[in-house]
Design a protein that fits this description.
Shape: globular
Number of strands: 11
Strand content: over 45%
Radius of gyration: 13 Å
Structural class: mainly beta
């Protein structure tokens, strides 16, 4: 069974940095597109960053220049390096694996940016 487990969330002050990790098991990791999504209180879930099987990336306009997504196929892990964090970044962050019509989601990790 495919399983995604996120880690690295927590409380951080504005301007700080945080690195999220998502470890994937039960699939051929290298052929899956990986993405990070987030959902704040009272908001819709939105795409934060995505990385394709060949390493191509795309980001939400709100995080461009501050967040970096990367993947390590040998470790079956996708990362989200977050810098210059703002209170508006506060949300539950979810990891997603996608291939054709199949999609798998992690349980999410809370990121809170506050003084």
């Amino acid at each position: 069974q495919v399983q995604l487990v996120e880690s690295g969330g927590g409380l951080v002050q504005p301007g700080g940095s945080l690195r999220l990790s998502c470890v994937v098991s039960g699939n051929i990791f290298s052929i899956y597109t990986m993405g990070w999504y987030r959902q704040g209180p009272g908001k819709q879930r939105e795409l934060v960053a995505q990385i394709s099987t060949d390493g191509g990336t795309n980001y939400a306009d709100s995080v461009k220049g501050r967040f970096t997504i990367s993947r390590d196929n040998a470790k079956r892990t996708v990362y989200l390096q977050m810098s210059s964090l703002k209170p508006e970044d506060t949300a539950v962050y979810y990891c997603k694996a996608h291939r054709t019509v199949l999609a798998y989601w992690g349980q999410g990790t809370q990121v809170t940016v506050s003084s």
